[in-house]
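#structure-requests
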Amino acid sequence: MRPRLEGLVLIMAITLQGCSLAPTYHAPDVALPEHYKEQAGPWHPAQPATSLTTQWWQIFDDRQLNDLQRQLLKANPDLAAALAHYEAAQAYASQLHAGLFPQVNASVAPLRQRQSDRRPLRGDTLPSVYNSDTAGFSLSFDPDLWGKIRNQVAAGDAQAQASADDLAAARLSLQRQLATLYVQARGLDAQRKILKTSLDDYRQALQLTRDRYEGKIASELDLTRAQSQLAEAQAQLDDVTAQSTLSEHAIAELVGVLPSDFSLAHDAAPLKLPEIPQALPGSLLQQRPDIAAAERRVFAANANIGVAKAAWYPDFSLTGLLGGQTQGSGNLLAAANRYWALGPLVNLPIFDAGRRSANERQARAEFEEAAAQYHSAVLKAVREVEDNLGQLRDLQQESQDQQAAVDAAQSAERMAMSSYQAGAVNYLDVVTAQTTALQAQRRLQEVDTSRLQASVGLVVALGGGWKKS
């Protein structure tokens, strides 16, 4: 009867190898809008996105930015930490895979030992000190009848994939920080040029006012106003320089360089604003690594439900032993010294005070949590795309209006200076016109910088840009 029983167990193991108690997995269904509110055009249902270039910053066509991004990938310590975390997740998944295969161990125990003189059932002829040599192999295999190990493997693989997506998300976030800081630094460079040009104009105006004052044409009040205006512009330049220094230090940290060993070139050509497609398909969101990571964690939580449910069923395993053992002396390989064992082991907990039931409830609750987090990630992605589209649209209109304000302010500045030289107005009118013109130019530059930063935000919100048609 025993050989028949062992054969029956083996047949059951083979038959149930494909069994899994995990619920059938379906990615969480998230209702998406038919189109982006801030951009005309249809919303396309999310499909696996086509592979896009990971060097999305090249759309800004700036060599210095390209070099900095490459340096970030090589030397950023936060990125190195994220990479190490991903490698640890991969290693853990590999550990789980090992459970699918038989485990074979070898042991050798050459012992010299002494037994107690008062050992129960000790014979008078048995020596007190003797050799005990043992060598053998053991084999164990879990046929995984209920899919517990396979679901653990599936969950581990999904977590490793999620960790890979976390790495991509960390990389994308750092790249965005670098691009945003670089755009800010370039905007401050432009602000500095505007202020330096204004300082040159203010110095000429001060010299003109001083000449007129010495010629008894202008009042001391006019001279004081010209000196105050020049000093105020110089203070603004100092403030912009201080902000530029901080931006440069932040960029140095991102690329893994000490601030004392890092400097930016300040004479680069202006950054160009990338052209945005007329319609952005919803499939672009599919390439966002945070969404991909959230979906993989939902899958892993679903597989963990199968692991928890498998605990309710008997746990079968197959065990085998083969080896030799001697006491005193003798050949381990001799037939008389051999030992072996082969058979199935069955384990079924009878009473656990509700442990298994609680584990299953926990697994189901963790699945609901992961599904909700996936839903949140998708909503966040849609909102970020909408935010940046809206920003780009509104800033474009603001840039046009601000350009008109700059043109008008510069015209008023020229007229005020001409009228002052002709003695038709006092210097207060000149100061007012020049201050308005400077503020208008600086505001226009701030808007242009914000447009570039919104473009960076849109590219990152879409997971790395869009495919050129």
